[in-house]
Amino acid sequence: MDLLTVLLEVSLSVGLAGLGAGVAAIAAGLGIGKIGAAALESIARQPEATGDIRASMIVAAALVEGVALFAVIVCLLVVLG
Q: Which residues form the domain of 61?
């Protein structure tokens, strides 16, 4: 392979890894936003269950954030590897 082909492949993988990390961050933000909106609606409908709803919301948001962090790390490994 010549040098130009190698450079194009490397820059393409870095660009796509960056795009993947951005998509993961945006998707996590949208997911956590939907979780928060649903939790607020649930609390408005049933105020006596606020503690249970809040706990479930925090667990769900943490899981979404964990998946997003995992996706960003995979993208970084593609860039570094």
A: 25-80
What pLDDT, in 10s, does the model give residues 14-64?
Answer: 888 889 889 999 999 999 999 999 999 999 999 999 999 999 999 999 999
Q: Which amino acid is at 63?
A: L
Side-chain-facing half-sphere of 2: CA atoms under 13 Å: 2
Q: Is residue 66 in a domain?
A: yes
Query: Is 42 within the bounds of a domain?
Result: yes
Beta strands in 2-63 (DSSP E): none
* H-run or E-run covering 8: helix 3-45
**Residue 13 CB contacts under 8 Å (≥ 6 apart), including other chains:** 78, 79
Question: Could you give the number of structural domains in the chain?
Answer: 1
CATH number of the domain that residue 60 is part of: 1.20.20.10
